Amino acid sequence: MRMRPTLSWTPTEELPPGTTDLAPVANVLSSGGVLVLSGAGISTESGIPDYRGEGGSLSRHTPMTYQDFIGSAQARRRYWARSHLGWRTFGRARPNAGHRAVAAFGRHGLLSGVITQNVDGLHQASGSKGVVELHGSLDRVVCLSCGAFSPRRELARRLEETNAGFEPVAGGINPDGDADLTDEQVGDFRVVPCSICGGILKPDVVFFGEAVPSRRVEYCRELVREASSLLVLGSSLTVMSGLRFVRQAAQAGKPVLIVNRDPTRGDRHAVTRVALPLGTALTTVAGRLDIPVEGPTATSVEP
Questions:
Q1: What is the pLDDT along the chain (303 residues), one digit of tens a residue?
Q2: Second label for 72, Cα 20 to 30 Å away, from 87, 129, 187, 233?
Q3: Which residues of 112-138 are buried (b: 16+ CB within 10 A; e: fewer)?
């Protein structure tokens, strides 16, 4: 069953205010066994906007839905034109201090795992191991007919060759990796088919309105069961794909801590919400725990 797209959330109850006290976060990390659940907010300091924060992309951009993508050739043309242009910028993004701090916590044995709702690959680029990509990754492409996977860089090369001279100026880049283009800018952009069977190609990501694969969900549920606590980083938890793990942890009596500047749909399940920028918050916590955070790395997602 596919989920109904949820693009916004409005609190229906008074939520506890955020705090700047990082002591609870440092305390749970020092005890180990922490499962991290990250969202778009951890990548904003890498130049990738989030969906719902101040200036978030939903104020000017409606993400592609699964139903539109599979049901309309024009929608696919529009998506791939925007995504092809966005990939040039998106693929050059570098991990920021927040990603590097998470990787440092992992190296020091404080984490039981990392689940990310992001499709940017920046946790892995920063050195985190065993990251579960809940919504997939933009660096892979899948054929909807034969199921074959291929690297995004291969598709980028084919699209470049097929659309020589396609150089519109984008109005912005979005968390799902596509660029803001008008229909006039998309023009007659040509989409390429699967090189094996001629089928429709789709990025290996979970679109709005598409269900996360059940085996992946169950694996994440197992990670929650094994964890001592859940630390949410930069997610509004608007969509159920992430919120369900917060609810599961809370129902099991495991502490849920959130670092997010704005209120979230999971606040009522959390013992605290720290309203600070993630890079600052996580490097401060690392300093309190005497854990060095490595400087910027040259590794990135390959365009």
A1: 344 445 555 666 777 789 999 999 999 999 999 999 999 999 999 988 875 445 444 444 567 889 999 999 999 999 999 898 888 777 788 999 999 999 999 999 999 999 999 999 999 999 999 999 999 999 999 999 999 999 999 999 999 999 998 887 666 667 677 777 878 888 889 999 999 999 999 999 999 889 999 999 999 999 999 999 999 999 999 989 999 999 999 999 999 999 999 999 999 999 999 999 999 999 999 999 999 998 654 333 343
A2: 87
A3: bbbbbbbbbbbbbbbbbeebebbbbbb
Residue 277, token pair as written in the block: 């920028």
pTM of the full structure: 0.87
User: Which tokens in the block code for residue 190?
Assistant: 């040509």
Locate 273 and state its tokens. 């919400």
Q: Rounded to whole angstroms, how far apart are CA atoms 139 and 205?
A: 9
State the Cα–Cα distance between residues 69 and 172, nearest whole angstrom: 21
CB-based burial label for 140 (10 Å; 0-12, 13-18, 19+):
middle
Strands 111-116 and 272-274, sheet pairing? unpaired
Which DSSP symbol is given to 65? B
User: Considering 61, 99, 135, 269, which one is annotated as catalytic?
Assistant: 135
In total, the chain counts a number of residues equal to 303
Q: Which two tokens stand for residue 109?
A: 């044995």
Reply yes or no on whether 135 is catalytic.
yes
| 169 contacts: CB under 8 Å, gap ≥ 6 | none
> What whole-number distance in Å separates Cα of residue 71 and Cα of residue 68?
5
134 touches 117 (CB < 8 A): yes
